[in-house]
Amino acid sequence: MNVSAYPLKAGAALGDITPDETLFPIPYFLTIEIDRVIDPIHVRGLDIDDGAHRALFITFDTIAVPRPDETLKFICEQTGLDEEYVFMAATHTHTVPVLGIEGITAKDSTQKHQ
Questions:
Q1: How far apart are CA 67 and CA 33, in angstroms?
Q2: Residue 76 · residue 84 · CB < 8 Å
Q3: Containing structural domain, residue 43
Q4: pLDDT tens across the length of the chain (114 residues)
Q5: Contact, 69 vs 100, CB < 8 A?
Q6: What is the Cα–Cα distance from 102 to 26, expressed in whole angstroms?
Q7: Euclidean distance between CA atoms 110 and 34, whole angstroms
């Protein structure tokens, strides 16, 4: 295939990953508890295909990528992409609940701290 003749294709998506209200309050750091979310928490994706390779770029509005190994495996299974073509990052905001970091989900964290 002549890659130069292949049109560049791209697609973008936005998903809401705001925790369910039943998970609140969520312990955060030290004595802080998050009791609600005012603005939705998102995950964003950009899929780019140049005819020779397809890559997926994903950003999470979280402090870190939630459960990165499991998340990467799930994305690869769903898209058929190899791991080296999936790029994940987090905005590293400290104003959202901790979502699945270090193997702890929001619900697990809440139950642990009650």
A1: 21
A2: no
A3: 3-112
A4: 565 678 899 999 999 988 877 776 666 655 667 777 788 989 999 999 999 999 999 999 988 888 899 999 999 999 999 999 999 999 988 777 766 655 444 444 444 433
A5: no
A6: 16
A7: 10
Question: What CA–CA distance (Å, rounded) separates 22 from 11?
Answer: 33
Strand partners, 56: 47, 86
Helix (H, G, I), strand (E, B) or coil at 72: helix
Answer for the pair 27, 113: CB distance below 8 angstroms, yes or no.
yes
Question: What total number of domains does the chain contain?
Answer: 1
Whether the Cβ atoms of residue 34 and residue 25 lie closer than 8 Å to each other? yes
Measured CA distances, 3 to 7, 51, 53, 55, 69 (Å): 8, 6, 10, 16, 32
Length of the chain: 114
Residue of 34, 40, 99 whose CA lies nearest to 64: 99
Instruction: Count H helices and E strands in the chain, helices first.
Output: 2, 6
